[in-house]
Amino acid sequence: MSTLEGTSIDVVGGGFGGLSTACYLADAGADVRVLEKNGQLGGRASRFTADGFRFDMGPSWYLMPDVFERFFGHFGKAPEDYYRLERLDPHYRIFFKDGDEVDVPADRDAVREIFASYEDGAGEAFDEYLAESASNYELAMENFVYEDRPRLRDWVDLDVIKAAPVGLKLLGNMQGHVEDYFENPKLQQIMQYTLVFLGGAPHNTPALYNMMSHVDFNLGVHYPVKNGSGDQIGGFGAVVDGIVELGEELGVEFVTDAPVAEITRRKDGFLVATEDGTEYNPDLVVSDADYAHTERDLLPAHEQQYDDDYWDSKTYAPSAFLLYLGVEGDVDPLAHHTLVLPENWDPHFEKIFDDPQWPDDPAYYVCVPSETDETVVPDGDHSNLFVLVPIAPDLEDGPEVRQRYRDEVLADMADHTGVDVRDRIVYEERFSVSEFADRYNSIQGTALGLAHTLRQTALLRPPHRSDAVDGLYFTGSFTTPGIGVPMCLISGEHTADAIIQDR
After folding, report:
1. DSSP 8-state class, residue 181
2. Dist CA 496 CA 99 (whole Å)
3. b/e per residue, 482-500, with b = 16+ CB within 10 A?
4. 8-84+227-314+452-502 and 315-440 have identical folds
5. Could you give the C-alpha distances from 459 to 149, 315, 371, 452, 456, in angstroms and in order?
6. Which element (helix H / strand E) includes 290?
7. Alpha helices of 95-121 — where are they, by DSSP H?
8. Which positions ≥6 away from 443 have C-beta within 8 Å?
């Protein structure tokens, strides 16, 4: 396919949306260059090494393997050409703060028995819920995720009309939907924890996203490991490396340490200037940088689609308080993926979306990749921990509050999991709202982008095509289909399709 032969395109930002778009455009014949602000590709899926510990800085749950297979399949490849997958068992472990503990195993029948042990009839309800979840997943992916519908008239389609009764039923929120199946609050939490990956909360996320339970229980949770490496490289870095390798095979040029300072429309194309004064003159531009940053900081005022009031009116996905810890000794009984959940998590979500402040009794996540991959630590006598607490974007996060909250979270982990690392930490790094804003130019320091509320779903998200500048396009988590690594891969396909159609 050479639809774009002779067309030069600069992609600003090397996150998953930008990498995906670059691959699709190069495959269509374009001359593609990716300009990445930071010293490595992958965007929020960056990584770093310190004192023999290797940390994934962002995504750590490999979900929706079918999306990755579809992406690589477009180019006649498969994920296993670049990395292999190890299915985790248990998928994750949950410590409830009332002292209860539960493993969620890879065996779906075993999960059913766990549900039945918490509530009479919950085993049958689990089967019914998953059947609906699988059906909604298929419906949503084929009609609303893989198929981009950026204009209202695109929704006047026979397949959409047929799906409408189901879609309308699922416009309520997730909390009400899950309550129709389960009374036990712990089962409700298990069915809704994946909303964090969508940047939402039970009360503001459409019930359509119950399809994430199909992703969790039927498709599984995996750990990617790079192929052909003498020193095993696992985690999302392996996925980034695989897509970059594919891009290089397709002819994409990657330029790192190249923060873009200006995008200006010219008669013969664009001027794209980096902070060091380097100038590029592509025919077209795709921005995978934060959408608001691109519009407000890189474009002239008359070429912006939205004003500050628009961006101030939006609901942003949470930011995060992150701890990267290198620890002496083991951290049993933590699993590779561990969730620590209060009996009532509503106050935590309220302090993210309704009354922004640091949560008093947080729900949080602990990743221990050293449980699966011994190469992320300097030797077998150490453990690698990544602690993530979802918090409201735009919070003040100075040194004093960080120290206080760090101490509170580690004490909470010791109290509720039995794992006290405070006297065994040999390496520590903190990352929060300010770093998301500085490193990724993220509006309000959101860790993810626009939340998946009903008013920010589908065509209500910012478009792939700029309405103000011909030849300027957008990709990534602010656009459709939304937040998360799989969604950003699909976003890249949508953006490339829009360019091909327009040319």
Report:
1. T
2. 50
3. bbbbbbbbbbbbbbbebbb
4. no
5. 7, 16, 41, 12, 8
6. none
7. 108-118
8. 290, 292, 293, 311, 316, 393, 437
> Bridge partners of 226?
83
Q: What is the pLDDT of residue 205?
A: 80
pLDDT-based confidence at residue 456 (cuts at 50, 70, 90): confident
Cβ–Cβ under 8 Å, residues 11 and 250:
no
What's the whole-number mean pLDDT along residues 74-84? 97
pLDDT in tens, 458-475: 778 999 999 999 999 999
Residue-range domain boundaries for the chain: 8-84+227-314+452-502, 107-219, 315-440
Q: Which two tokens stand for residue 104?
A: 């969620």
DSSP string for 7-22: -EEEEE--SHHHHHHH
Is 316:71 a contact under the CB 8 Å cutoff?
no
Structure tokens belonging to residue 388: 């993530």
Beta-carbon count within 10 A of 439 CB: 16
Instruction: Judge: domain 8-84+227-314+452-502, CATH 3.50.50.60.
Output: yes
Hunting for tokens 């009360």 — which residue is that? 203
Asked whether the beta carbons of 370 and 378 are under 8 A apart, the reply is no
CB-based contact 492:16 (threshold 8 Å)? yes
pLDDT confidence of residue 463: 94
CATH top class, domain 315-440: alpha beta
> Which tokens belong to 259?
């923060």
